[in-house]
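Quick one before lunch.
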Amino acid sequence: MDWNAPLTALPKIGEKTAKLFKKLDIVCAGDLLWHLPAYYRDLRTPVPLREIREGEEVLVRGRLTTPPRWGRRQGKFSVFSFEVADGTGVLLIHIFNLPFLFSRYKTGQEYFFYGKPKVFRDRMQMDNPLAYPPGETPGILPFYPLTAGISQIMMRRTVAAALREVRPPETFSGGLCAAADISGDGESFRLVHAPQTPEEYERGRRSMVYRELLVFSRMLALMDKGEISREALRFPENIVEEYEALLPFACTGAQRRVMEEIAGDLRGKTPMNRLVEGDVGSGKTAVALFAAYAAMQAGRQTVLMAPTELLAGQHFAFAEKIFGRRAALLRGSCTKAEREEIFARIAGGEVQVLVGTHAVLYHELPFPALDLVITDEQHRFGVGQRAALLRGNPAAHTLILTATPIPRTLSLVLYGKAKISLLDELPPGRKPVATHIVGQQKRRDMYTWLRGKLKEGEQAYVVCPLVEPSEGFSALSVEEVQRDLSRFFRGFGVEMLHGRMSGEEKREIMERFRSGATQVLVSTTVIEVGVDVPNASIMIVENADRFGLAQLHQLRGRVGRGDKESFCYLVSDGSGLERLRILKSTNDGFAIAEKDLELRGGGELTGQRQHGKGSLQVSNLVRDVDVLLETREMLERMPEEFPEDYAKATQLALEKIREGDAQVVLN
Ligand code: ADP
Ligand code: MG
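Model of the adenosine-5'-diphosphate complex:
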């Protein structure tokens, strides 16, 4: 079957089911192969019944010691039960609403059962486990991301059909695969979707990662600016002091050091390519605007790009204090007239610093001498956009800001000869944010406490995982929490904020919060990236276990910015406590990121797919940095040994660059 064949060409898939699959971006048969498992369960070795624990999914093996018996039936509802034993213990099994299975189970027969045991009236029981006769266990069972209307069983069956029917095109030659010790495309898909052992899965994944990173490495090589020489910028010797005098605060030692490093680069005869890494709140914006200031003193212009409109607005507010009318903000939502007005000011030489989101990339900017591009990346690694923006001036200086600690090897590969500056000191007077983990049963107490704080004039963020209540997700949503808290905090302003609102709406809501007109902001993680409201001193995260540690740390960084004592409450139903305790124990973002990596890198079988064309789909740059290095070595050999594969990698890399989407998200 052709890779692009419609889903309906597969057995048992009609128009209706195809529509459901479309919600998962699965349109053609080949898309099914790219729908990778979210996780796996190892169903090869059963656990003795004596050792199973409540709430932990396990595979057990047991013989029926009683015949199945019907429980009370009501209308369509049915249940039957039986007991199984394995010599170490007994387990009671209930089968709900699957009456046709009743006649399948007979006393003395042996089965494997996979499910989540629970204790009820002092007995261990399992409801509706997956059951397999001996010899028919699936080995390693994949679990896929789903949507309403598609079950795991249906997904597995459909993917299996695609595996049988579709012959994926092979990207590289057999010779290259052998040299790299990877499997071809078709075999990799089989290993990832239907592994017999964890090693098979690992090999399948590594092969896919290798192919992806080989193209990625080629892309980096194509974008490398190499050693271009350029004219040095000239500005006063004491420029750092001059700049600091314009700021409302005294700089930290680290800020001064990094500014000197930047000044040194700008005075150099090769383009600056510097990465500034600093924890949340370390004051990266002031450092970035220093670079813009120095460029301006040398008669050159700067573009500063932020990841969100909200942040761009905030950076602009800071920039305006220093640069006045010489700074401008280009919003995605600008009308044509507004945009043209800004462009006229740029062309006329008034605007020296343009702040915006990555949307600025889509415009030809009429700068007389654009010479510095600053990117505030937060969690992202952007590599493509620099190339895009610098079409006009490939020798321009670049500065990248990030709050994510990037392992050194990786940052060197990604940013070429990037020099790295660490902002390893927080501005004085910051109190560490007191962090507490709160059980669900204590939520009311916490909100009662918060009411007292609001009366004292404090402000709080409440972050929820969802925008609206969603079936199948037992997590709180912004909408329901906002409704709930408006009632609970009568007399105070409780507003919500989420990514589905328009830029204008978001800005107005943020402004009301900033000015103190509202006291509580219930939000999704849109506030994660760098929102700065010094008076807000309390952060509550609902269903905290749903978030990554680095993300929680970013969220917590929204408070503790003023001089007040600050608090962060992580509400959890008891899952993920080990991870959450790390946050409680330290305020050091870099330590947290390392711990997080350690905990997650623990050999657990996980696959993940990031949506969006062009971005890496299977690779995790941090985890797969070794593979990345291998592919770089391979690239060196390829022109000689595998010229056809080299041409293919180049072609694929060029396609990616042309798509303009060389964005890579670090998670
Ligand atoms: P981040 O590194 O997270 O981007 P910001 O640049 O947003 O941090 O700075 C966080 C806050 O700290 C801002 O309100 C900023 O004005 C303030 N700030 C930055 N540097 C200093 C300093 N040296 N002293 C006092 N406040 C500072
Ligand atoms: Mg910032």
